[in-house]
Structures are given as C-alpha cells and as structure tokens.
Amino acid sequence: MSGTRVLVLNSGSSSVKYQLLDMSDSSRLAVGLVERIGEQSSRLRHTPLATEKGAGESREWTGPIADHDAALKAVAEELAKDGLGLDSPELAAIGHRVVHGGKHFTEPTVIDDAVLAEIERLIPVAPLHNPANLTGIRTAQALRPDLPQVAVFDTAFHTTMPEPAARYAIDVRTADEHRIRRYGFHGTSHAYVSRATAKLLGKAPEEVNVIVLHLGNGASASAVRGGRCVDTSMGLTPLEGLVMGTRSGDTDPAVIFHLARVGGMSIDEIDTLLNKKSGLIGLCGDNDMREIRRRIDEGDEQAKLAFDIYIHRLKKYIGAYYAVLGRVDAVAFTAGVGENAAPVREAAVAGLETLGLAVDAGLNAVRSDEPRLISPADARVKVAVVPTDEELEIATQTYALVARYRNAAPPRGN
Ligand SMILES: Nc1ncnc2c1ncn2[C@@H]1O[C@H](COP(=O)(O)OP(=O)(O)O)[C@@H](O)[C@H]1O
Ligand SMILES: CC(=O)OP(=O)(O)O
Ligand SMILES: [Mg+2]
C-alpha cells in the first residue's frame, strides 16, 4: 500500500453518502450525497474540502440517476474535477458500509468473490440495503480493480450479544435452519458513539456502561457494557425496535397474519406497509422530525400523537436497557434526530429522575457539532449528545485493515 487516502461509500436504499479522507491525519478531502436514486429528480451534492486549491464551493446537480452504478460513476466524475479522482495513486482503499453481515462477519473484511456471495445471500434479510451495498462494491471494483475494497458491517458490533439477547423464543430447530436470530444494525455508529461517550466522561470504554440511541431515519437503541454490545433493538432485519421514519418497529407478529387473512394483503404488500409506510410517516404523513415539530407547534393533533408514540417506545427501551445493564453511566443521543431534536431528548428522559436521569433545559437547547453533556452537573447518569461519524469509523477500520498488509502481500479485490 502506498497512499493514505480512503474513499468511504455508505449506500442506502435510494442514496449514497460518501467521503474521501486522508488517513494520515483523518482529515476529510471531499464529502457528498446522492439522493433520490432511481427518480427523475435525483440530486447530487458534492463539497470539496481540501483540494490543491483549498476548500471549494458545494456543487449541486439535479437530474435522473437511474441506479447506484450511475450514482457512483457521477461521484467519481465530481471527485476528478477537484483533482481527487479515483485513479489517484494516493487512494489506498475503498471502504463500504454493508448493512447485513449475518453471524459470519465480525470484523471489517477485504472483499473477494466469497464475501460478495455471502452479502448477496443475505439480501432477503436486508432487502432495502444489501442490494445497494453490492452495486456500490461492484462499481467501485470496476473503477479500481487493483485496489482493496473493504466491507464494514453494521451487524459486526452486535455479534458480542449474549444468546439470551440474540435469540427469539421460537422453535430452536426452525430458527437455526433459517438462521433466524437478532443481528442488530447501525453497529458502526453504536461502536463509535459508545467509545466517544466514554471519552467525553474521561473514562476508558471498558469502564463505562452506555445506552446509545441512534435516531436517524432508521433508528435503534443499544446497551453497551464496557465497550461490548449486550443488547440492541433491531433484530433479524432493521424493522424491529423503535418507531422510525417509515418503519413500524415492534408490533405483535400476529398483525401480519391478521392483515393477510382478514385484510387480504399479500406478504409483499405487508412488507412494504411495515417498512415504508409505517412509523412516523404512517402515523402522521411526515417522517421528518422538523416538520412534525412544526406541525405540533401549530396545534396539529395527529403530529402530536405520532410524536408521543415515538417517545413512548423510546422511553420503554431506555428502561429496558437500564434493567439489562444494571448500572448506567450515560445515555447518548445520536444521528439526525438525536443530535438535532432537543424536544425528543427532553421528552425521552422526562419523568425518569428516580433512575438518575434528567436533562438541563439550557444545555439541551445549545446547538453544536461537538460531543456534549446535557444533564445537570450533579446527575447520577449523564445524558449526552454525541454526533456519530459512520464514515470516519469505516475509513479508520478500512485503513487499519489494509495497513496490516503493508509489509505482506497486498490484499486484492479479486
Ligand atoms: N434540525 C433537525 N431537527 C430535528 N430533526 C432533524 C433535524 N435535522 C435532521 N433531523 C431528522 O434526522 C433525520 C435524518 O437523520 P439521519 O441520521 O441523517 O438519517 P439516515 O442516515 O437514516 O438517512 C431526518 O429525517 C429528520 O427527521
Ligand atoms: C440499518 C438501517 O436502518 O440503516 P439506515 O438507518 O441507514 O436506513
Ligand atoms: Mg444513517
């Protein structure tokens, strides 16, 4: 390996977030996002942060981008305009967020044909995410066949979950035959944020127990004891757990039988209903917390009920993970909602004073990109806002993996 740059691709079902980083100092050279892939009005926003000419203006482009292959090629073109093209000898590796790694992948992994086949085999349990991840990998391989491509799995951090937390109480043979268990997702974020929270408390990760609340469009909670995940709210797929932007989270599984038998819906229709038309959008027609807060301020009852359902579920998970951990040092809020929505943080811990949890209204109102405490100074359990950085974490893990090969034979894509 010669270069020190890593390109990180975080491919979602209809978007790609990307960052080019220089790992000699973990600085970001360029960042961007392609949204609404597959629609007529796809949007690419690219921001060069450190080129030979310094930081540049953000560039935006709107038009049809058919799929993740076209999206990544458009990203490569934007990078090339800034002299940061994928053909650069400075590029050491490309790191990919892969959402479902099953039980098999516990570590970042150099991608070869066998790894690709396993990611493909897992599509049925991550139908929104793994296909996009695969396309991102294949396109990146085609653009730079000589470079190591590394997969960093959302599930990896959760593979430490003990069996009582990871197993569903269903027939053991059936579960094992179909590999049905709780895998958990957003692990890169839970790992990063739990470590950053320990740092904020001035402690080592091994010394602290943290409840991490990753509240983005997808949302999950995790219980982290001494740096290891012991429980998390997402399960076989990213549908279980908290109320999300478009996903229901926990429901009685019999809702599905009922909708099929009595409602006459097909399995695919129910899948779409629970994954894409439920959660906040199903409850009130909006999945963006900013819009929901605006409607609540205008006295909208439907938005208020959606918010209250969201908070009720969140509070239940805080209580559950308090019980799982026994001792909690901190509760950390992260991702789009967790980092920005002060009313969500306030409501989630309201009334939990007997558990030692409280939020200081003044501190909670402060806007900042830095990790910070928002609990009163004398709080027994600290409440923190800790911005996540999945891309930096993926770049760090990717670079560490390829650096291990520095004096050995370099890892190859294929
Ligand atoms: N200023 C804000 N106030 C409240 N909520 C916000 C704010 N900014 C973003 N959000 C919420 O964050 C969500 C996106 O979170 P993010 O972590 O980027 O999600 P994802 O990675 O799943 O796309 C938005 O849908 C919105 O609900
Ligand atoms: C796993 C998952 O839910 O990811 P995202 O939040 O990116 O949709
Ligand atoms: Mg996210």
TrEMBL record:
<dbReference type="Pfam" id="PF00871">
    <property type="entry name" value="Acetate_kinase"/>
</dbReference>
<dbReference type="GO" id="GO:0005524">
    <property type="term" value="F:ATP binding"/>
</dbReference>
<keyword id="KW-0460">Magnesium</keyword>
<feature type="binding site">
    <location>
        <position position="390"/>
    </location>
    <ligand>
        <name>Mg(2+)</name>
    </ligand>
</feature>
<keyword id="KW-0067">ATP-binding</keyword>
<keyword id="KW-0963">Cytoplasm</keyword>
<dbReference type="GO" id="GO:0008776">
    <property type="term" value="F:acetate kinase activity"/>
</dbReference>
<dbReference type="GO" id="GO:0005737">
    <property type="term" value="C:cytoplasm"/>
</dbReference>
<feature type="binding site">
    <location>
        <begin position="336"/>
        <end position="340"/>
    </location>
    <ligand>
        <name>ATP</name>
    </ligand>
</feature>
<feature type="binding site">
    <location>
        <begin position="214"/>
        <end position="218"/>
    </location>
    <ligand>
        <name>ATP</name>
    </ligand>
</feature>
<dbReference type="GO" id="GO:0006083">
    <property type="term" value="P:acetate metabolic process"/>
</dbReference>
<keyword id="KW-0808">Transferase</keyword>
<feature type="binding site">
    <location>
        <begin position="288"/>
        <end position="290"/>
    </location>
    <ligand>
        <name>ATP</name>
    </ligand>
</feature>
<feature type="binding site">
    <location>
        <position position="10"/>
    </location>
    <ligand>
        <name>Mg(2+)</name>
    </ligand>
</feature>
<feature type="active site" description="Proton donor/acceptor">
    <location>
        <position position="154"/>
    </location>
</feature>
<dbReference type="InterPro" id="IPR043129">
    <property type="entry name" value="ATPase_NBD"/>
</dbReference>
<dbReference type="InterPro" id="IPR000890">
    <property type="entry name" value="Aliphatic_acid_kin_short-chain"/>
</dbReference>
<feature type="site" description="Transition state stabilizer">
    <location>
        <position position="186"/>
    </location>
</feature>
<comment type="function">
    <text>Catalyzes the formation of acetyl phosphate from acetate and ATP. Can also catalyze the reverse reaction.</text>
</comment>
<comment type="subunit">
    <text>Homodimer.</text>
</comment>
<comment type="pathway">
    <text>Metabolic intermediate biosynthesis; acetyl-CoA biosynthesis; acetyl-CoA from acetate: step 1/2.</text>
</comment>
<keyword id="KW-0479">Metal-binding</keyword>
<comment type="similarity">
    <text>Belongs to the acetokinase family.</text>
</comment>
<feature type="site" description="Transition state stabilizer">
    <location>
        <position position="247"/>
    </location>
</feature>
<feature type="binding site">
    <location>
        <position position="97"/>
    </location>
    <ligand>
        <name>substrate</name>
    </ligand>
</feature>
<keyword id="KW-0418">Kinase</keyword>
<feature type="binding site">
    <location>
        <position position="17"/>
    </location>
    <ligand>
        <name>ATP</name>
    </ligand>
</feature>
<dbReference type="InterPro" id="IPR023865">
    <property type="entry name" value="Aliphatic_acid_kinase_CS"/>
</dbReference>
<dbReference type="GO" id="GO:0000287">
    <property type="term" value="F:magnesium ion binding"/>
</dbReference>
<dbReference type="GO" id="GO:0006085">
    <property type="term" value="P:acetyl-CoA biosynthetic process"/>
</dbReference>
<protein>
    <recommendedName>
        <fullName>Acetate kinase</fullName>
        <ecNumber>2.7.2.1</ecNumber>
    </recommendedName>
</protein>
<keyword id="KW-0547">Nucleotide-binding</keyword>
<dbReference type="InterPro" id="IPR004372">
    <property type="entry name" value="Ac/propionate_kinase"/>
</dbReference>
